[in-house]
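Quick one before lunch.
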Amino acid sequence: MGRLKKYLRPYWGFMILTMAIKLFGAYTELMIPDLMETILDEKVPAGDRQSIFLYGGGMLFCAVLCLLSNILANRMSAKSSGQITRAIRHDLFNRLEHLSARQMDKLTVSSAESRLTSDTYNINQMLARLQRMGVRAPMLLIGGIIMMVRMDAALALVLIALLPIIALVTYFVTKKSLPLYTKQQTVLDKIVRTVQENITGIRVIKALSKTEYEKERFHKVNTELTQIDQKAGTVSAITNPTASLTLNLGLTLVVLIGAYRVNDGRMDSGVIVAFLQYFTMILNAMLGVTRIFVMWSKGEASAKRVADVLESPEDMEILEQIVPEENAPHIEFRNVSFSYTGIGVNTANMSFRLERGQTLGILGPTGSGKSTILNLLMRLYDADEGQILIDGQDIRSIPFQQLRQKFGVVFQNDFVMEGTIADNLRFFRDVDDEALQHAAEYAQAEFIATKEGGMNAEVQVRGNNLSGGQKQRLLIGRALAANPEILILDDASSALDYRTDAKLRRALRENYADTTTVLVAQRISSLRHADVILVLQEGAVIGMGNHEQLMESCEEYAYLARIQMGNGQEVG
Ligand code: ADP
Ligand code: MG
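Model of the magnesium ion complex:
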């Protein structure tokens, strides 16, 4: 929690006040048995009715004070811990948004989710419990012991001798169960991940009849969690029965030993009644202390997971700008190599140049590194070696805001969001209605006019009320809307029919002549007009040039062209 100190700082005063009120409540609680003992041992034998009522009233008063101060302090603790957790969650979300793609790969989405939800919840619980029990339990424990010793030291010592039993058992249990709690959290991450994958892929899973397999997969992680839960449960299960045993043993001893001492005239009978209460109080306080300990460790583990994200460094620096070379091309890759994991290569020593307004086509089988090139160009990942330049500037020296503004992009498997069609096209940017109309028109999204409400028609979550082709056109429209300097289309026309695809290309050529375009496609017809085409295989360029050159020089390209376009017949 030390690393999250700054979130506590504004609430220190408030939390100390909360605990002071708790302390007062605990004090009034401790007074009650004492007052009762006085009534029983002094006032009742003396037959002093007035005093009995007075002291009885005192007990009632203490009870009410105790109740009120506890309610007040508990509400205050809920407030401060809620506010603190809110601030932590806010910053955590913010940090997660800004993590680099590489950091997110390492963290994993499901872990990010559970840190944002269950870990912050644990922190909240720890803070709340700590305020509610943190001073109350020790106060009741120590205060109770002091009161007992004052009333009858001998009997008090007998009871105090019982306390180490509980202390030892809880120490043992906590030590055993804490690592299990940490593990529990990790397995919980796993469950979230499995469910997430399952729900995202629900249609594919059904279509391919993988339901049984998925059930089995979930069953596995579910069992793992159950086993850890069970183990943790089994270990902790000793605590409560031991506590009950100690309590009952103590109460029996109080009555037994107390009776002898009262008989011998060494103790007043009221002390027995007071002791019964104090011992119960002390034991509960003792359990409270150990519960705080567990809560603390759990919260501490969660705080660490949260702090790890909050303190993760910016892993992409902005380099110093240099004066760009004269006549630099718009986009240039210079001997760029990259690997996601450090194992194998996903981009191997790649070089190419694109002038402003030119089109680059990228072709290659799945997994050959097509999207990777786009990720590198947009600086979602930093290349391991080599340089990527835009207008002669190393992209690492361009501030992110400025860099990302250059791009209009449709990612592979991009998704539309819930909202109106206009919202989706505009995507929170400053784009006027006319520009939206144009973008929609060039993206061949005529379907918008046929929707009820046109631009203001509602799109459901993930665009469920649109067809694949409609979604793609909407996404292309979104990429075009801000009139980008560089347009990136990753397999963005796969759901368009040939005719629409051709119309789209014509619209781009005519209206975005200055826009440099990078397009990934499966169909040669989609990129045969590109100025430069890269043919990729396992991260390496095996062919580069325009269509005609590649037909001559690249066997794979020529082969694909033959099977896709038939005997030289052109489509689109
Ligand atoms: P393509 O777009 O040509 O289908 P990608 O560029 O997406 O291929 O992927 C190239 C290779 O990099 C693949 O082997 C893929 O498994 C791997 N890869 C892609 N993204 C990641 C990632 N975030 N972490 C690790 N490996 C990745
Ligand atoms: Mg791809």
